[in-house]
Amino acid sequence: MKPPRCAAILALLVLLVLLAGVGLHAVGWKNPFASVAAGLDFVRAQAGVLQAFRQAHPLGAIFAYAGTLLVCAATGLLSPSFVALGGAVVLGFGAAFAIAWPLTALAALAPFMLARLCFRRSLERRLPGPLGVIRRGVARDGAFYLFSLRLLPMVPFTTVSVLSGITPLRASTFFLVTMLGRLPATLLYCNAGAHLAMVRSSRDLLSPGLCLSLVALALAPYACRRLLRYRRGKSLTPVPAVELVQGPAPSEQAKFA
């Protein structure tokens, strides 16, 4: 991007921020931190209700968390990472992680087996492009291709499970690789949830533990991509998530044609 163009975009952003500030002042929103505090009070009240339920019914809270995680990870209604984060807010880091890590991989077996046993022909007819990409990746890299997809959050969790069901990967290999690939994300999200549970005021939002947790969540995808590119060395093979979105490189198409 050329410098004059960057300067114009920056000036436009500054103008939009100023206009937004004038508009908020005109409608009477003179203390944004008061709104933040009110929002924190609401979230803290809801978390208090859930924590009271956990104290009154510890097994019920665990089963509710495990059931929600299984349903979301199997159907794609919600990312299992966010369910793990919410579970850590209520149950704490240790319990949330111990439940989320194996159950996420176990739930992924449901769409994997359904795609393999019931919907193979339908998926091959309707999704030839993505299926071709993931089949070539598994043929080229084996289980490491699935591991790299699990490390990167760009591709939805359930989508990877469904597409993997049409590949030659064994169910046991799929389960173990999914567990290994989900380990970093589950650790990071449960850690962030545990720190969010300790927020009592707007000042706690700037606590070192919470800030470090959020920074780690933001940097994790980029670190994983750098790691995968380093592992592939100087190969022209694209990163798996990019490959699924943009299609394989021409050299790969010719190789597996």
Share in β-strands: under 5%
Number of domains: 1
Low-confidence stretches: 27-40, 234-239, 249-257
Elements, N to C (H/E): HHHHHHHHHHHHH
The residue fraction in helices comes out at over 70%
Structural class: mainly alpha
Calculate Rg over CA atoms: 22 Å
The coarse overall form would be: globular
Mean pLDDT across the residues is 74
Let me know the number of strands.
Answer: 0
**Number of helical segments?**
13
User: Distance N terminus to C terminus?
Assistant: 37 Å
What oligomeric state best describes the polypeptide chains here? single chain
> What's the main sheet like?
none
Description:
- The chain has 257 residues and is an all-alpha fold.
- It has one domain.
- The protein has 13 helices and no strands.
- The C terminus is likely disordered.
Distinctive features:
13 helices, 257 residues, mainly alpha, disordered C terminus, globular
In short:
By secondary structure, the protein is an all-alpha fold. It is about 80% helix and about 0% strand.
